[in-house]
Amino acid sequence: MADLQDIKREIKSVSNTQKTTRAMKLVSTAKLHKAKELTERSKMFADKLNSIMSEIAGRLKCHSVNEIPNRSFHLIDDPKVVDIVFVTADKGLCGGFNLHTIKAIKRLLAEFENKNTTVRLRGVGKKGIEFFKYNKIEMLDEVINLSSKPDLQRSDEFISVSLNDFIAEKTDALYIIYNGYKNMLTQELHVNKILPIDPGLFHCEDPIHEPYLEVEAYDQEVMLDSLTKKYVHTSMYFALIDSVAAEHSARMQAMDTATNNANEMVKSLNVKYNKARQAAITTELIEIISGVEAMR
Amino acid sequence: MDMFELEILTPNGVIFHDNVIEATFPGEEGEFGVLAHHSTVTTLLQTGVIEVAKKDNSIEAVLIDWGVVQVDSDHVTVLADGAVAIKGDTQSSIAKSIDDAKELMHSVAPSASVIASVSAKLENLATQVLM
Fold first, then answer.
1. More confident residue, B77 or A215
2. Which end of chain A lies in a sparser environment, N or C, as judged by fewer CB atoms within 10 Å?
3. How far apart are CA B2 and CA A191, in angstroms?
């Protein structure tokens, strides 16, 4: 039977851990509300911009798309070099949040390796970076303190490198992978192919009569370049803020589970303590009775 | 008169969403107006004021710093980087929104001619909004 003092010490230690996890849960809940609000407000903008870009790409697809200078709308079937930008958290203690993203990156890396495609990995978030460094997987870029504190300017600077390399034909595709917010209890993994722009489900029903591109004709190229830049920047920034909201929801859940587990542990330790105490009392009683019996 | 749905979105949320009779946009190539059943068009907008005529004939104005507009026959969507709605019930609240709008305009540092024309338009609109 374990020593009573040891069990008492263990109960105290677990109770203290429980206090910490409960506090962390409260902090995450407060942060989640703020991050969720920002994500929901930005989502409409990001979704609408995506649909505009898909529609333009779709309309261009119906015609000889590869003739226009903007490479973002070209159909590149066999990419030689691909940029993969991933977003993970800077901190742990959020369950499988980071692991889900890492697994998706590894799957994509294996996929591209089979096709003999060179991958340039660009990481945002300490946890993901640490994983790939530990596994000796080479990364082109590492950025920390951006996924925990999304900043528009830093985000634009970071993603501009990928955009410029794509335009300069150094890369043939750009992917952004992150774990996004779905609801208070669920996160959703996003593997988004940002460049070249996906025409989505646009159908060329009547390509002859379909207008080439319904834009003001003054300077189509200026407009496509400007929109592409905005689209890539928005996609990156939205990935960051969506990831922060998801991180807080994952941490809130993980801390809630930890608090409940600590509660169960304290309960079972209390039972163990009471049993040990009872056993000690019984032993003492037996010793007294035995002593009295021996004296007779 | 026929109306169409106008939506002005920024990364910080919806700035305007209502059925309107007419809207005027600050296009890169100059101002253009949109009525219901307009032909489909997508174009860029520059720093300027979007003027909206609502069904009760009231005027509402929104200053944007950069944007793209997608016009369909009965639905118009504007995506703007930053936007400030010029509205309010009192002179002081309208003056406050005009100050915010000017601050946004100066933050993107357009040319002096754009600043002058947009400022004049804002002052002019302020009287119309209050009417």
1. B77
2. C
3. 43
Q: Give domain limits for chain A.
A: 4-20+255-295, 37-253
Tokens representing B58?
């009231």
Which architecture characterizes domain B4-130 according to CATH? Sandwich (2.60)
- Helix (H) / strand (E) element for B122: namely helix B112-130
Tokens coding A213: 């591109």
ipTM over 0.90: no
The CATH class of the A37-253 domain is alpha beta
Q: Are strands A173-181 and A81-87 parallel, antiparallel or unpaired?
A: parallel
Q: What residues 47-106 of chain B have any CB closer than 8 A to a CB of chain A?
A: 68, 70, 77, 79, 81
Q: Answer whether residue A205 shows pLDDT above 80.
A: no
Residue of A nearest to B29 (CA): A218
According to DSSP, residue B70 is labeled E
**Residues B11, A237: C-beta atoms closer than 8 Å:** yes
Distance in angstroms (rounded) separating the CA atoms of residues A234 and A8: 54
Q: pLDDT-based confidence at A241, cuts 50/70/90? A: very high
- Please tell me the predicted confidence (pLDDT) of residue A216: 59
Place of tokens 């059943």: B37
Whether B42 and chain A come into contact, CB under 8 Å, resolves to yes
pLDDT, tens digit, for every residue of A30-74?
999 999 999 998 999 999 999 888 888 887 777 665 667 788 888
How many CB pairs lie under 8 A apart between chains A and B? 55
Model's pTM, two decimal places?
A: 0.86
Indicate the pairing of strand B59-64 with strand B67-71: unpaired
Q: Which helix (H) or strand (E) holds B127?
A: helix B112-130
Q: B40 contacts in A (CB within 8 Å)?
A: 211, 214
pLDDT value of position B57: 81
CATH superfamily of A4-20+255-295: ATP synthase, gamma subunit, helix hairpin domain (1.10.287.80)
pLDDT digits (tens, 9 = 90+) for A94-143: 989 999 999 999 999 999 999 999 999 999 999 999 999 999 999 999 99
For chain B, the structural domain boundaries read: 4-130
Determine contact: B30 vs chain A, CB below 8 A. Answer: no
Q: Does A176 touch chain B (CB under 8 A)?
A: no
